[in-house]
Amino acid sequence: MAENNVVENVETNVPQHKLTNKELNSCFWRFVFFPMCTINYERFQTLQYFQAMKKVIQKLYPSKEDQIDAAKRHMAFFNTTPQWMGIPLGISCATEETIANLPKGEERTELENSVNVVKASLMGPLAGIGDSLDATIVAIIGALSAGFAINGSILGAVLMLVLGNAYYLSICYFGYFYSYRNGIKVIRDMNKSNILDKVMEAASILGMTALGALVPSWVGFNLTTNIQIGDYVLNIQQELNNIIPGLAPLVLTLILASLYKKNISSIKLVVLIFIIAFVMALIGLTA
Amino acid sequence: MGFDLGYVIYVTLVCTIIGWFGYGMYNMFLNQPVVAGALVGGLLGDLETGVIIGGTLQLVYMGVVGVGAAIPVNKTTATTVTTALCIMTGISMDNAIALAVPVAVLGQLAQMLAWTLNSSLMHAADNYAEKGELDKMAHLTFVGSAIFFVTQLVPIFLCIYFGSSFVSAINDNMPALVQNWLSISTGMLPALGFGMLFAMMYKVKYIPFFIIGFVLTAVFGGSLLAVAALGFAFAMIVYFYVNQGKKKKGA
């Protein structure tokens, strides 16, 4: 795969510095295993990005001076969804490889500056899509596994482990190696094909359909107690079921969703739920 | 009423190590409630309780995800500590779930502390970079990881140590009203997870899919797996047919 780079570089220079599978794999496993360890309020994932690149930098730049430059370069602000970090990392590896083989000069400086421009331009969109895609996928897997778990089956946990890791690792793996092979071209391809938007839309459709099914199944919220008014016994749940089954959980979910959209924090909403539940308990309703 | 200190430490370590996976290294999805609950249950000798609490909390915290720079409430700590306290004190599962609420916030505060402490590592890294000590820079990873371990350990120990006696004390004389209140709350809590997820994915054009999913389940009794399969089919239709149509028009 690295042969492409060799051919390209022949015109300018014979590539002296080439990444082998050893460094590429090191970078891959380092970012898979330690994506968040030093995450902090100042520069978020920055240091983890650098530690993934460490072996790559050491291999490509024999001189200490160049190593210092590269290390400083990768200490610039970076933050994105962990598994999507592979895409900028792959591009960074490819770019650093090219830089190492260029003679000092304008072209090299320009390319050096481009490293952080690429990282900065990718991290926002990738985090936007990554975070919401993550939420959707984990929610779907979570809902399926919770279905087993609530009935006491260990299969739920197994399902989460297998599907969750398969999803995570495949994005890490394909994102990283694809970007390394194609370098900067990846950004152009992504913009042109709109692939991320399309995937996001498909995932949202799946997520929304599944969510529709989840609401009536698992909001354990049945108004089972009868209210007696004179001779008339009002069975609230029965009445509601006559309108449409699952109406109460649906209304509750939609109210909470609209409050959450108005930036009311989830903690306040939990308190609200406890208050509503207290009122229900007081008037003698049971779950 | 008191619990053996050795046992408390064992429980604390189990909960801390599982919680540590959230940021301390690749989480391997061990930090998801459904897995974390099963692990704590298994290690404390009551697998079924762990599995059920984990499953319930998975639904409750469904919409809780870290978006951008915000740290969400800590669903892993909530699950591990709730499961542990439930097994230790024998409180009913419905009531135990209510414990998750304060514990999740405590776990979140612990992580905010870790994020703050980790900021100092950035300056150490800058200094090492200046001197060209790349290996030392990379080793800071383990310092950061250790910080996440310690910041989890302390609050979890306090929760287990004081929480276990506290919860068993209340459990022995809990009025029926309170028990009923907590069960109703537990039943309603998943609606919050669903609501948050709904708010996140909401676009008018997705509403038809939500309605289809809802009606198939609520009215026709479809299983989640069957409805999810249909959802997958809708997603494929949109991905392969709708977008292709647009392309042709553009060409």
Key attributes of the depicted protein:
heterodimer, A: mainly alpha, two-stranded antiparallel ribbon, B: 251 residues, mainly alpha, 9 helices, flat
pLDDT average of chain A, as an integer?
Answer: 84
Helix count of chain A equals 12
Oligomeric status: heterodimer
Overall strand count of chain B: 0
Give the helix/strand class of chain A. mainly alpha
How is the biggest beta sheet of chain B arranged?
none
Strand content of chain A: under 5%
Short summary:
The complex is a heterodimer of chains A (287) and B (251). Chain A is mainly α and 287 residues long.
Please describe what this structure looks like:
Chain A is mostly helical and 287 residues long. Chain A has two domains: 3-207, no CATH class; 220-282, no CATH class. Helix content of chain A is 72%, strand content 3%. Chain A has twelve helices and two strands; from the N terminus they run H-H-H-H-H-H-H-H-H-E-E-H-H-H. Chain A has helices at 3-10, 21-33, 46-60, 64-73, 86-100, 106-150, 155-182, 185-193, 195-218, 236-243, 247-261, 266-282, and strands at residues 226-229, 232-235. Chain A has a two-stranded antiparallel ribbon with strand order 1-2. The longest helix of chain A has 45 residues, at 106-150. Chain A starts with a helix and ends in a 5-residue tail after the last helix. With 251 residues, chain B is mainly α. Chain B has two domains: 5-189, no CATH class; 203-251, no CATH class. Helices cover 79% and strands 0% of the residues of chain B. Chain B contains nine helices and no strands. Chain B has helices spanning 5-20, 33-43, 47-60, 75-89, 93-131, 134-172, 176-201, 207-218, 224-250. Residues 245-251 of chain B have low confidence and may be disordered. Chains A and B meet through helix 3, helix 4, helix 6, helix 7 and helix 9 of A and helix 2, helix 3, helix 5, helix 6 and helix 7 of B.
